[in-house]
Amino acid sequence: MASSSKTSAPAASAPTSSAAPSSASSFRQRPWVRWGAPLLLLAGLAVLPLVGTESFNDTLARIGVFAVAVLGLNVVMGYTGQVSLGQIFFLGLGAYVTAYGVQSGWNIVLVFVLTCLIPAVAGLLVALAAARLGGLAIAMVTIALPIVGVPLAKRLSDFTGGSQGMSARFVEAPEGSGLYDDQWQLYLVLVIGGIVFLLTYFLVRGKYGRAFAIVKGNENVASSMGISPYRYKVLAFTIASLIGGVSGFLYMVVVQYTSPETMSFGHSIELLVAMVIGGAGSIVGSILGGVFYVVVPDITNAIDPSLTALLQGALLLAVLFVLPGGLVSLPRAVMRGLRRSPAGRGSAAPPTTPSSTPGSGTAAEPTETERQGSA
Amino acid sequence: MEKFVQLVVDGLSTGSVYAALALAIVLVHSATGLINFAQGGMAVLAAYVAWVLTNQGVPLVLAILASILFSFLLGAVLERFLMRRFERGDPDTAVVVTIGLLTLVTGIAGWLWGYNNQQFPSLFPLDTVSVLGVSVSVRSIGTTVVIVVAMVAVQALFVGTKLGLALRAVAINPQSAAYSGLPVERLLMVGWGIAAVLGAVAGALVAPQLTLTPGMLDNALVYALAAVILGGLTSPVGVVVAAWLIGVLENLAAVYVGFIGFDLKVAVPFILIFVVLIVRPQGLFGRKTVVRV
Amino acid sequence: MTLLELEDVTASYGPVQVLDGVSLSVPENGAFGILGANGAGKTTTLRAISGAVRTGGRIVFDGKDISGMRPDQVAALGIAHVPEGRGSFGDLTVRENLRVGAYLRKDRKGVDEDIDYCLDLFPNLQDRIRSNASALSGGEQQMLAVARAIMSKPRMLLLDEASLGLAPSTAKNVYDAIRRLRLESGIAMVVVEQNANLAFTLVDSATVLETGRSVLTGTSAELKGMDEIRRAYLGG
What we know:
The complex is a heterotrimer. Chain A is built from 18 helices and two strands. By secondary structure, chain A is an all-alpha fold. In chain A, helix 1 (4-11) crosses helix 4, helix 5 packs parallel to helix 11 and helix 15 (265-278) runs parallel beside helix 17 (308-322). Chain C is built from ten helices and ten strands. Chains in contact: A-B, A-C, B-C.
């Protein structure tokens, strides 16, 4: 856990310079920190599976699975600004494809490729229709995915095993490696998940990421720049679905069993809650989201299972009120709070964002923002 | 033939429930520009209030009326203390807030009353009556009639009263409404309150059939959203017609289309949506919406 | 007798200071113009009076400090704002728009009489009384906006760019009607106007704003043809 502060070094990127004390940012600029920290992190992750207990490894692996799922949701929602309530469906779809492929005795590489492709194609089809309507239509359509998905999975029992679900054991530590199964599974999650995170990092930092950000910021501006909001929404949703499929593969690696319950509506909401609480539009936030998704229900179930939903809802609203950037923005918010407190304000809660009155930002004489256009 | 008529009447009745929820969503959207995913959850909370009261020996009608009053206050309070902060901001954030609210109210209901199904008394007898030689259930007819009356009342409020005029004005142009002296903030609370009342009526009528659980209206919410998409966010009439269409079609499909059956009928509105979205993106009745800058 | 007084009013949108000390004074029954180039702070001054932006300084209406009040509270005191862009309620009919304007009034009979008065003042609206406001032409919408404001029986009218986007003859029609309204009702007015010549047909005195500050104040007769006026508009 000591390495966690360093993990944010490559990912926390430009905005930190204004918020973090300048000494820290120059510390991060030093070449040995820039290269050393990721290497140290890598070494830490390589050793990690070897030192933990079985249940610890299992928890870590599950966190990895759902961190990938949250990351996918982040691509479409955090980075492109399209609320999706159906991400869990693609995890479930990926899990079913994996289970079916394994049970049919297909080559595992082929199974993995199909686990990427089938959810991606399904996501593409959904997005092609849903993204045609502007605004919140994607949220309104994707909410149907888990609701339709569960009875559909039950119905297609030839492929899914119906309500019973399907199990598939296909990940066993290779002989001679000296590893236990749980260690081997965690390595698989770390490697595949790590690659997905790395690719996504480059995606959102690159040309497509900028286009996503512009679509998120203002679709009219995007259109005027020759960026088709429709096309990029569809692209983002398809990528999110693909990543969801991968997380489904990893789910089968770790859990080795799936049923219609895997993609239930409640889980879909929990995934969204985890993403917002971890930090929308953030790589590190996706990992925190995975931690939240796995660990918090464990804790609340230990206290009182009937409180889980209540606590999750309350936590989400609390985060939206006091920490809109999610947990990932906590260090920055605390820094700001600490720096402000000598000046007389003790509150650690950051003020509402200055952009809370959109449209009147810079224009000296803003025109009335009329609703007529959208009414 | 008799079966067909029964299916249609039952479909209209469930469609009416979707319609009430969908109208509530449209109402909130036109006033505040956001989709309230907690609309169904709030209605469930109201149904629990009515259920608790009937368990205390309060007559059902009074219990439902009390839950309606509760809903109005709940809607107004939520608008004032939760949603207002997010209304003028990013609509996506506001939607996430309503999802948080859905989780919270579901969680509250589950925490207070558990996740087991509870029997909710029906306002109507479980008899059938003969209409034109075909027997149809009293409950379906009653549900449809009550919801239609509620919707007509809301429509009359909006078209025929000063309060309704003010609510519409605030929905169209809140800034200009404030310049005319309309108490915009209070009117938004009233708008949320009325939406919650519509939801509560739907919840109380459908609870006997579905039995009361915290997630009772999750599916109905999905149907209502489908009706909103099909009808178009700008068209209350379109939304109601779409909701009835969905209710009837899913009932017919469940019986007459072999693959769909009762378990998969929730897919019917979405098959419909996919077809409509490709053919007519603005919905069946709505006008083409202009993206807000 | 002063009806409205602004003392050193400041306002900003986020970090951008838009008003940097605006002072003006409007007597009862007076008509006062605010002139200046785009971005000088004219519209913001009106929004400041209406309470639509947060301000510093003092704004006194009828002896009462109204700074910090909400727009609907300011409206209730008798200040009617005709916003830039007209602020029509597009999905409401012309008659409904007028009724919204009369929201604060309880005298139903008086409201009906005033609707008739508005239709007399703006005969173009007579034929469109059942049309949706969104179907009206720009000139008709401007007339509707003024009429809607009158419906509240205000003591003061804030008029923002009433000629914007209108053909010259239409703009003249609108201003003719407003002049007639002023003669017949004695409503005080604060008029923001790009077209200084048009403004001088209505106002008794005016101030010129430059980057959020009053740089010149005088009667219409004094200001007409002064270099500063020309400069303010040509942005020199």
